[in-house]
Write a structure and sequence with these properties.
By secondary structure, the protein is of the alpha+beta class. It has one domain: Beta-lactamase (3-Layer(aba) Sandwich). It has 8 helices and 9 strands. The strands form 3 sheets. A 5-stranded antiparallel beta sheet has the order 3-2-8-7-6, with helices on both faces. The protein has a two-stranded antiparallel ribbon with strand order 1-9. Strands 4-5 form a two-stranded antiparallel sheet.
């Protein structure tokens, strides 16, 4: 039997997608921004790309990439590799605190951001241990898509083996943390992602985010969805997934 393939679409109908998202989000609470870029063709769609929102645990990918810019994965001590594994796959905050300190805190984080061409993402100064200050880093969907694209780009500042290692960890997050942009994947596509969720102390509302890569049939999509203002984390997850599904549907159709 011939294998069914994902069907690519032509030009991305930006106005149509925006109307679709407007209708969906009109009945939901909070702010949302999304960007999808097909890396081979350059086709891109962005919605509320001017919005700046907090990363929550999405920042952990940049922490790891900053670490690997300094030291290749194979040369890291075993304990540091364990922290990296736990930070990405289990979203362990204490592991992230230790690696934040190892990269030099905000200076190392921001220096890495500049290497990857990020324009809107800046770390929060201060010592993050038990405060998770990396989680309130302001970012944009454009920056997050740039960062995801650097995980597959041949001219990335990150070494090929280290890019593959980051993707491997993001492709093996534990059950219960594999929501988000994965909801938009077709059967047979591979997803590497990192999700973030954080309750704002100031208003009790949740920031919920999902960034990563959707890959299949020789095509790579970098995807970023950021949201703030959800009343519960489950509500935010549903919003992120609903947005990702609606946008990715415009780029290609899944087999029936």
């Amino acid at each position: 039997m011939e294998q069914q393939r994902v069907v690519a679409r032509g030009e991305v109908p930006g106005k149509e997608i925006s109307r679709r998202l407007d209708r969906y989000l009109a009945g939901r609470t909070g702010r949302v921004a999304v960007m999808v870029k097909e890396l081979g063709s350059g086709r891109t769609y962005a919605y509320h790309a001017e919005e700046r929102m907090i990363t929550a645990s999405v920042a952990k990918v940049q922490i790891l990439m900053a670490l690997l810019l300094r030291t290749p994965w194979k040369k890291l001590p075993a304990a540091v590799r364990r922290d990296a594994d736990r930070m990405i796959r289990y979203s362990d905050n204490h592991a992230a605190d230790r690696l934040w300190e190892r990269i030099g805190g905000v200076r190392g984080f921001d220096a890495a951001g500049r290497r990857f061409g990020l324009r809107h993402t800046r770390g929060v100064a201060g010592r993050c241990v038990d405060l998770y200050c990396w989680g309130i880093t302001q970012t944009s969907v454009d920056d997050q898509v740039r960062l995801m694209a650097a995980l597959v780009a041949k001219k990335s500042p990150l070494r090929r083996q280290d890019r593959a290692q980051v993707r491997r960890l993001m492709g093996a997050v534990v059950d219960g943390q594999d929501w988000g942009i994965s909801a938009a994947a077709c059967r047979g596509e591979r997803v590497a992602l990192k999700n973030g969720w954080l309750r704002r102390v100031s208003n009790g509302r949740w920031a919920t985010a999902s960034v990563g890569l959707v890959r299949g049939d020789g095509r790579d999509f970098a995807v970023a969805v950021l949201s703030e203002g959800s009343p519960q984390v489950e509500y935010g997850i549903a919003t992120v997934e609903g947005v990702a599904e609606r946008v990715m549907r415009a780029f290609r159709s899944c087999p029936g």
